[in-house]
């Protein structure tokens, strides 16, 4: 007899938070000012930021995919943005503060479709409810996520599809 378990009883969503920083390799020519250094700013050595994870770092992918009844209404977003943005909080997320500290714009959600957005400074590939393990792997063990079937592997596939628009090599690597 298979035991039916839900994801939320096994893993805290915060454990799924993963950020990948894409850094320029040119630290010798950094133009960080003394004021930035005194302020604790990191300076201009990071050129882009890519975020993977679940609702702890989703900046609007669920909203763009039409999957977020609770994140798409107030009070979500009201304290900073003045409107719902798809973030599952009433203000900014940790990834928003990281982008700000790096001197980068807030991350544009990337649900997998290339539209007119510019991802030169990075993208947010996180989706609320995402798991670290693949849906099939979990289902084979009687573990079901009733919210979504998106995994970190799916987010990495989206990133791989985005790479050719960011890199100059044909393979995108």
From TrEMBL:
InterPro entries reported for this sequence: GDSL (IPR001087), SGNH_hydro_sf (IPR036514)
Pfam families assigned: Lipase_GDSL (PF00657)
GO molecular function: hydrolase activity, acting on ester bonds
Source domain of life: Eukaryota
Keywords, comma-separated and alphabetical: Glycoprotein, Signal
UniProt signal peptide: 1-25
Similarity comment: family membership: Belongs to the 'GDSL' lipolytic enzyme family.
Identification of the protein by name: Uncharacterized protein
UniProt source species: Linum tenue
Organism ancestry: Eukaryota, Viridiplantae, Streptophyta, Embryophyta, Tracheophyta
């Amino acid at each position: 007899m298979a035991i039916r378990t839900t994801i939320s009883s096994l893993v805290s969503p915060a454990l799924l938070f993963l950020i990948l920083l894409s850094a320029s390799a040119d630290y010798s020519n950094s133009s960080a000012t003394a004021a930035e250094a005194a302020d604790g700013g990191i300076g201009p050595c990071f050129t882009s930021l890519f975020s993977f994870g679940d609702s702890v770092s989703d900046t609007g992918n669920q909203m763009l995919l039409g999957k977020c009844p609770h994140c798409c209404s107030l009070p979500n977003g009201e304290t900073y943005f003045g409107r719902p943005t798809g973030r599952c909080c009433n203000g900014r997320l940790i990834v928003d503060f990281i982008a700000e500290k790096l001197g980068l714009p807030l991350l544009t959600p990337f649900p997998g479709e290339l539209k007119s957005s510019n991802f030169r400074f990075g993208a947010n590939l996180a989706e609320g409810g995402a798991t670290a393990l693949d849906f099939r792997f979990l289902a084979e063990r009687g573990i079901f996520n009733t919210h979504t079937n998106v995994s970190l592997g799916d987010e990495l596939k989206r990133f791989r599809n985005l790479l050719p628009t960011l890199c100059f090599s044909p393979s995108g690597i």
